[in-house]
Write a structure and sequence with these properties.
It is built from 2 helices and 22 strands. The chain is mostly beta strands.
């Protein structure tokens, strides 16, 4: 694996800039409205725990809990953790008035009977910069470990395939032993407000498919203001990808996490961030269209979490011309045209 890092650094020195590049990728005949995304599909073998009281599950880029009982459930956040490989993040929200953020008291959130609640976003654990070099000045860098080396190696393999073969997307399937990303969550719930007697729960999953693909974000049309009390449901943004789905799954409980990826070969690194949302209209609530931007912990139920909706267009779609003059409509291609709508 160290040989990979050395060869990557050597490649960086002799790399020249191309006119046609998106997010740092050298791709030809692609409309400037397109982006490059990294989509991670996770195995759901151990991603759900269920007993007579609760159902705890990883889906839609987050950790969810359902209170199946007729009683209020309490979670002590000091006993709840999220894991990204060997890194652990406490779900406890430190009190800014306390020195050194030392946990000195129980911090509870309550789940009402029959309530379905998102506890924390797991996609945000993977965001940040992965680098072949150590840069202490930068924030959000992932430490160079065996896992990050494998991650960078696979991403570079897919990048080369995408660029050299001038493809719309490149994919790789992984077994559990080959997986370089493993997510886990450990919580403890109780019916006791003092949280003295708790039931521990652990759920986990691992990346089984990694997809590097061009994508376009299709927003719904702006909501029309009318003199009416009837509410209109606005669709979430639709992520149109030039790839095929790695497997069949329920959209409502999708095991896929999506990121906008930007590479910098000169510095030997790539950065994963939020899926790009273009053309926000002032009449729309922007928070409804942030993909993967999730509050680490919910102290209340006020935070909006939006579902990542992916439209799998297939690998043959023509991304050389993207026409989106009308809100809620997009047309891909010149000769072989594909039309997609996102209307409410």
């Amino acid at each position: 694996m160290r040989k990979f890092l050395f060869s990557l650094c050597t490649l960086l020195m002799c790399t020249t800039a191309w006119a046609d590049n998106i997010n740092g990728f050298k791709v030809e005949k692609t409309d400037e409205k397109a982006h490059i995304g990294l989509f991670l599909a996770f195995s759901g073998v151990d991603s759900k725990y269920e007993d007579e009281n609760v159902a705890v599950e990883i889906y839609r880029e987050a950790l969810w809990i359902t209170n199946k009982s007729d009683r209020t459930i309490y979670l002590d956040l000091a006993q709840c953790f999220a894991y990204y490989n060997d890194d652990v993040v406490s779900l406890y929200i430190p009190d800014k008035t306390k020195k050194k953020n030392i946990v000195t008291e129980t911090q509870l959130i309550n789940i009402a009977p029959k309530e379905d609640r998102m506890l924390c976003g797991l996609a945000s654990l993977i965001t940040g910069t992965y680098s072949a070099y150590v840069d202490k000045k930068e924030e959000y860098f992932h430490n160079i470990t065996e896992y990050t080396e494998k991650f960078m190696s696979v991403v570079d393999e897919l990048r080369i395939e995408l660029e050299n073969e001038n493809k719309n997307s490149a994919t790789k399937h992984l077994t559990e032993d080959e997986a370089f990303i493993k997510l886990k969550a450990a919580i403890a719930y109780s019916f006791d407000k003092e949280a003295k007697e708790t039931t521990p729960v652990i759920v986990s999953n691992w990346v089984s498919d990694i997809i590097l693909s061009k994508y376009y974000t299709l927003l719904p049309p702006p909501q029309q203001k009318t003199k009416s009390l009837s509410a209109k449901k606005i669709n979430p943004a639709k992520i149109c990808t030039t790839a095929t789905s790695p497997f069949e799954y329920e959209e409502e409980k999708s095991p896929i996490m999506g990121y906008d990826i930007n590479i910098d070969l000169k510095k030997g690194r790539f950065t994963l961030g939020q899926i790009i949302v273009t053309g926000n209209n002032k009449d729309l609530e922007e928070t409804k269209y942030y993909m993967g931007s999730i509050t680490p912990v919910l102290k209340t139920g006020n935070t909006i979490f939006n579902q990542l909706v992916i439209e799998w267009l297939g690998t043959d779609v023509d991304f050389s011309k993207i026409k989106d003059d009308n809100k809620g409509f997009v047309q891909f291609g010149k000769d072989k045209v594909l039309k997609v709508t996102n209307l409410y």
